[in-house]
Design goal:
The structure is a homodimer.
Chain A (H helix, E strand, L loop, with lengths): L1 H20 L4 E2 L1 H8 L3 H10 L10 E2 H12 L5 E6 L3 H8 L8 E8 L8 E2 L2 E5 L3 H7 L2 E6 L3 H13 L4 E4 L6 E2 L4 E4 L2 H14 L20
Parallel strand pairs in A: 3-4, 3-7, 4-6, 7-8, 8-10
Antiparallel strand pairs in A: 1-2, 5-6
Helix pairs in contact in A: 1-4, 2-3
Chain A binds a DNA duplex (30 and 30 nucleotides) through helix 3.
Chain lengths: ~220, ~220
DNA sequence: ATCGAACCGTTAATCAATTAACAATATATG
DNA sequence: CATATATTGTTAATTGATTAACGGTTCGAT
């Protein structure tokens, strides 16, 4: 699973930022492994894949690692993105800080409701979807964020693809179809809930709370 | 990876609902496999794990499968949940349809901003977080949805755990710590964006759009 | 300058997940 | 009723991912 590696790389980035903040300049495979919850050899193998070299007694350079991770995930190359669907979820994303170092830059926002068109959301004016095609073409947009109701999703996908987009971040709770060559990343929130439901099934007879001291790092996120 | 199976089960549910809507009552492992993008033997093994039996020429009963999937994921047993952080994202979730058949029922909403406390969001009155403890205790709440800023996350986690909660659905873009026995499901939206960024790196030189006919099912979601 | 510990890089071993293969069985057809 | 066929249940083979093991290097200590 290639996907598993990507998740690990993202996780490394997280922890490296934290270490850097603490003033550290190097880190060993052992330490990172402990934080992420995997074996140190896994970490070393990932770093070989990234073609970064460590030194026998000090470990790996944090700055160098960050650089390579950014480059591997293509986070420095800011790609133009548009968002379609300016409802509650759309607005939440527009206002959120996720766009920093994400590899994307939000360039325009669309909707089809007269009530929101023309309003300004976090500095971006909401436009009518009929302008989608021309904006995508003229502003070098390569990806779209889909926060419309499920029923409208496939229609908007068609428009996006027709305009030449190559990637879709889909929040609509439905499976969308796209031609080969167009990357679809689904963010199905319901699945997160269901997964939690399943996981809690096992924990039914939970012990009485231990003291807050013995908290452990959460390793369930990967 | 147990997680991979859970994702498949959720995916089966999706497609079964679609088939049911189309009037179908049975489905073969082959057909489901084609839809989900895996091998038919994988599907059959999952169904053996669910202890459902198929018939040699007709396949599996859709209704029976749905029942067993619901039961396996514990989606029928509605567990009480609270949401903390009534910002844009919180509101989006409160208004969204994800709670249907999710295994959870949203019972109360909290914030610490005077400007939103007391307001009614989709039928739920926003309360001050200081009431969190007593509400969790008195209304049999077992899980919490965290939509607060990263800086506030760990503090709220402490409150939730102190109140006796056993599961956390975390949207805060930070790693939170919880004692063993408390399930944490992280919904890191930035990771979705980064993954898309990586995936698009490979598609740089995309071919000219093929016609819309040869769309294929997206198999990248698992 | 030599020793020894800490850590990397790499290869081998283990473990897990997926797919392939096929005998068993129920149903449809004539 | 007999035969053909689609599809299951199950076991074996394969593939992939993870961990373990260990020789090789650097660096600090004596």
């Amino acid at each position: 699973m290639q996907r598993a590696r990507i998740f690990r790389l993202e996780s490394y980035l997280d922890h490296l930022a934290e270490l850097k903040l603490a003033g550290r300049t190097t880190v060993t495979s052992e330490e990172l492994a402990g934080r992420v919850g995997i074996s140190s050899s896994r970490v070393r193998q990932d770093f070989i894949y990234l073609q970064v070299e460590g030194k026998p007694r000090s470990g790996y350079e944090i700055g160098e690692l960050e650089m390579l991770l950014y480059s591997e995930l293509d986070l420095l190359h800011e790609k133009g993105m548009v968002l379609i669907g300016c409802g509650n979820l759309g607005r939440a994303l527009i206002f959120s800080g996720i766009w920093e170092h994400s590899g994307f830059s939000l360039k325009a926002v669309f909707d089809n409701q007269a009530s929101v068109i023309g309003s300004v959301v976090n500095g971006l004016t909401v436009r009518h979807v009929r302008e989608l095609h021309s904006v995508v073409r003229s502003e070098e947009i390569v990806a779209g964020c889909l926060t419309v109701p499920a029923i409208a999703a496939q229609g908007v996908v068609q428009m996006l693809i027709g305009a030449g987009i190559r990637g879709i971040w889909n929040f609509a709770p439905t499976e969308i179809k796209a031609p080969a060559g167009v990357v679809v990343e689904n963010q199905r929130l319901e699945q997160g809930l269901m997964t939690l439901s399943f996981a809690m099934k096992e924990t039914r007879a939970a012990p009485i709370r231990p003291d807050l001291e013995n908290y452990v790092h959460d390793a369930s996120s990967s």
